[in-house]
């Protein structure tokens, strides 16, 4: 019996299942949505949706006006990224990352140096995988992934009967 650890880098196939599940089950039923993804928790599915897959998330370059608004709001509400994010029109994580980038540029640092505490060390796991693009699927999926995809297809396609709501 294999032990599955929930979490880690998102794959394209998981993103597609998540999108389809959100279309069917909505944004208030994360336990049902995540039941289609063996390696993800409801909290991870919700974070992935709101931080990356939600169509309203802007992934374009920051405009000068957005940067000025971000700097102004960061002075008014220090470290309150969830408050700042909807005003700027970005996610809280995007605001934090871009603010740190602007501070680095102001201090004359373009790249993170080796001693920067924000830099991941070799072997360290990214604490925010939901904010990154999905990893391409392997050409040959393992049996668990194939089973997860076929079950998700079957459950998402079922629209009648007792099990339609599951």
From TrEMBL:
Entry GO CC: Prp19 complex; spliceosomal complex
Family recorded in the similarity comment: Belongs to the CEF1 family.
Region (Disordered): 106-148
Span of domain SANT: 9-62
Molecular function per GO: DNA binding
UniProt keyword annotation of DNA-binding present: yes
Gene Ontology BP annotations: DNA repair; mRNA splicing, via spliceosome; regulation of DNA-templated transcription
Domain HTH myb-type, residue spans: 1-53, 54-107
Protein name: Uncharacterized protein
Pfam family, one: Myb_DNA-bind_6
Keywords recorded for this protein, A-Z: Cell cycle, Coiled coil, DNA damage, DNA repair, DNA-binding, mRNA processing, mRNA splicing, Nucleus, Repeat, Spliceosome
InterPro entries in the record: CDC5L/Cef1 (IPR047242), Homeodomain-like_sf (IPR009057), Myb_dom (IPR017930), SANT/Myb (IPR001005), SANT_CDC5L_II (IPR047240), SANT_dom (IPR017884)
Keyword DNA damage: yes
Natural source organism: Zooxanthella nutricula
Compositionally biased residues, Basic and acidic residues: 106-138
Domain Myb-like intervals: 2-53, 54-103
SMART domains xref list: SANT
